[in-house]
């Protein structure tokens, strides 16, 4: 059987239950052998995150502690340069060899901007793209992305059959949680409880990230 590896990249500023439940649902639905969470070091498609990459990586580590299926991959921090998914996929492909099925996971919001990504045309030569719906976002009916999607779209079983080259859309429950909302609530002194793991919430409070007051549990 072909080994199936998933790469789920993000700013994770901070990681939240939307990311975590999605990652777990994907592991269960697609039977990925590995699900690697890859915090970006310096994102190129958005403004510089307010929190350093090692802290965002630490929050991922805290969030997945004890999980048998999710792992932290710090390759983008170790590269130390601008973070491009194409480099991460190339590194993983070199490490895993040609047979492994490698999938880059992204929410639909991220996929909508795919054609602005660095060397995006090379992504399918290195792996598959697995796109998950996100509340509030819809695929365009026409245009270059719709054409690309029709040309490369395939059913889930292709992730077993091929090592790379296809786009798979998965209808997976997406929780309507965003890191932006968590940062905003924190800055306003409002509770973020139940939106993200407790260990991450405490890390944010202890270090005063996102303008957090201390202690976080006093009022809520
Ligand atoms: P921000 O609010 O700062 O933009 P975010 O919550 O979108 O952050 P990111 O770290 O930017 O989180 O997202 C990493 C990846 O996870 C992206 O591909 C994004 O589409 C996906 N994602 C994030 N939150 C969800 C969610 N609730 N449901 C589905 N996909 C999500």
TrEMBL record:
Occurrences of domain Cytidyltransferase-like (ranges): 7-184
Keyword NAD on entry: yes
Catalytic activity line of the entry: nicotinate beta-D-ribonucleotide + ATP + H(+) = deamido-NAD(+) + diphosphate
Pfam families hit by this protein: CTP_transf_like
Gene Ontology molecular functions: ATP binding; nicotinate-nucleotide adenylyltransferase activity
Alphabetically ordered keywords of this record: ATP-binding, NAD, Nucleotide-binding, Nucleotidyltransferase, Pyridine nucleotide biosynthesis, Transferase
InterPro entries: Cyt_trans-like, NadD/NMNAT, Rossmann-like_a/b/a_fold
Pathway(s) annotated for this protein in UniProt: Cofactor biosynthesis; NAD(+) biosynthesis; deamido-NAD(+) from nicotinate D-ribonucleotide: step 1/1
EC number: 2.7.7.18
A GO BP entry: NAD+ biosynthetic process
Matches recorded under NCBIfam families: nicotinate (nicotinamide) nucleotide adenylyltransferase (TIGR00482), PRK00071.1-1 (NF000839), PRK00071.1-3 (NF000840)
Similarity field: Belongs to the NadD family.
Protein purpose: Catalyzes the reversible adenylation of nicotinate mononucleotide (NaMN) to nicotinic acid adenine dinucleotide (NaAD).
Name used for this protein in its record: Probable nicotinate-nucleotide adenylyltransferase
Organism encoding this protein: Gilvimarinus xylanilyticus
Gene: nadD
């Amino acid at each position: 059987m072909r080994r199936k590896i998933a790469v789920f990249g993000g700013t994770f500023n901070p990681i939240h239950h939307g990311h975590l439940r999605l990652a777990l649902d994907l592991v269960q639905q697609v039977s990925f052998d590995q699900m690697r969470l890859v915090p970006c070091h310096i994102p190129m498609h958005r403004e510089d995150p307010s929190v350093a990459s090692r802290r965002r990586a630490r929050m991922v580590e805290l969030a997945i502690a004890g999980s048998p299926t999710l792992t932290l991959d710090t390759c983008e921090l170790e590269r130390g340069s601008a973070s491009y998914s194409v480099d991460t996929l190339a590194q993983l492909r070199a490490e895993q060899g040609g047979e492994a099925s490698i999938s880059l996971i992204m929410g639909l919001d991220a996929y909508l901007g795919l054609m602005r990504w660095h060397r995006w045309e090379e992504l399918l030569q290195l792996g598959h793209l697995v796109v998950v719906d996100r509340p509030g976002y819809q695929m365009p009916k026409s245009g270059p992305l719709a054409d690309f999607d029709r040309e490369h779209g395939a059913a889930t079983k292709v992730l077993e059959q091929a090592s790379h080259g296809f786009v798979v859309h998965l209808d997976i429950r997406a929780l309507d949680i965003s890191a932006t909302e968590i940062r905003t609530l924190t800055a306003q002194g409002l509770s973020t409880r139940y939106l993200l793991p407790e260990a991450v919430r405490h890390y944010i409070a202890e270090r005063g990230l996102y303008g957090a007051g201390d202690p976080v549990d006093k009022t809520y």
